[in-house]
Amino acid sequence: MVRIIGIDPGLRRCGWGIIESEGSRLRFVASGVVMPPVDLDMSLRLVALHEGLSDVIDQFQPDEAAVEETFVNAGARSTLLLGQARGVALLTPALKGLSVGEYAANLIKKTVVGTGHAEKEQIQVMVKLLLPKAEFKGADAADALAIAICHAHHRSSIELKARA
């Protein structure tokens, strides 16, 4: 059995979701959102994000982590800001000694819903179907659970590539 934390990076709302995977069986553990205060300077918001994710990792002790890759938004500034949050989302579990998988949004959607262009509502419905005991408030936590589910399904192929 492996415990996985999925992280949906964001500066305002960084979703996290933790599942356990044993073979093809998945079990919901916890989910939530880290919300750094928006009135802080950027450096302090990043610290708050790091501390929030670090607390979650310390509390739930996952074995591995998965983070959504950043897609390029229409605005360069918003893409840069999201990239900074994503850097913290990659760094925090790595500092805790976890291996970190990275997945494109389309692969996450295709793995969980069956199509790479699924809507947020479809992701939430499928997460609830795959993890019947899942409790999440909003799309950010549901997306993080979807990222963890994607990692659970693709982690064996990543291990095989690493060994080759």
Give a written overview of the molecule.
With 164 residues, the chain is of the alpha/beta class. The protein is built from five helices and five strands, in the order E-E-E-H-E-H-E-H-H-H. It has helices at 42-60, 76-95, 105-112, 120-130, 139-163, and strands spanning 2-8, 14-22, 25-34, 64-68, 99-103. A five-stranded mixed sheet has the order 3-2-1-4-5. Helix 4 packs across helix 5 (139-163). The protein starts with a strand and ends with a helix. The mean pLDDT is 91.
What is the H/E order?
EEEHEHEHHH
- Count of helix runs: 5
Q: Give a short account of the largest sheet.
A: 5 strands, mixed
Q: Mean pLDDT, rounded to whole units?
A: 91
Q: Termini distance?
A: 23 Å
The best one-word shape is globular
The helicity comes to 40-55%
- For the largest sheet, list the strands in their spatial order: 3-2-1-4-5
Number of strands: 5
- Uncertain segments are none
Radius of gyration: 15 Å
Secondary structural class? alpha/beta
**What percentage of amino acids are in beta strands?**
15-25%
